[in-house]
Amino acid sequence: MINDNLQLPKDREMVWDLIKQFDQQSAYLSSMADKTPAFQELLAIGSVIVPILAQAVNEGYDFRLTYLMSLLVDDPPKIEEKDYGIVEIIREAWLEWSRDKGYIA
Description:
The chain is mainly alpha-helical. It is built from five helices and no strands. The radius of gyration is 13 Å and the shape is globular. The model has no long low-confidence stretch (mean pLDDT 88).
């Protein structure tokens, strides 16, 4: 069982390992990335991993992690309908949201 606060180094390591696995598993997928085993495992851990996901997106990992974040938070950033599907706008909206929450600098 994962620690609720992800304070144990092994918990954080496990999440980072899953993020790296997701990055590899989803590299050649477009619409099926949320079906990968790593995505499903990350989703099962829950919202406690959102700060780590924010850091991963900030470091350039797969932008589809923002979709996972949107499933785990109650207050996702507002994305204009005209901007749906525009990767850089979505990524930047999530990075700004993450900065506002204090998850990244």
